[in-house]
Known about the structure:
The chain is of the alpha/beta class.
Amino acid sequence: MSDAPVEIIADTEAARAAVASVDRFLRMIMVPDPEGARAFMAPDMRIRFTGGRQMSDPSECAAFNARRYAWVKKRFERYEVVCGADDGCAIVYALGTLHGAWPDGTPFEGNRYVDRYVLRDAKIVEMSVWNDSAEWLLQRAGLQQ
Length: 145
């Protein structure tokens, strides 16, 4: 995580409130604090992690990350909210980079990520996660073209 200012692209107060919820959720996930993160989730939240992995709880994200990385954190760069967000529905994109270490302790930084969140009635109902980690792992294995 970073203390640098994060750019927010949001055109309404409802959009800014959606960003605030996603930001707090992400900060809880990165601790990791799955219990705290659940406060921002709808009970039937769906998580689609890298590689299309289906999950339903932030603890599953932490468990996956613990297998892929020695440790990993996000540097938040920007939040973008799709125009037309209101109190009933908002779509928020979170963009930035990952930094951390691979399981062998080799450090990395600058690994791009994009997360997409759908909020309904101020609760996150969908989370989709994309990043460059698979590409970086292929490169480390000498398999990238």
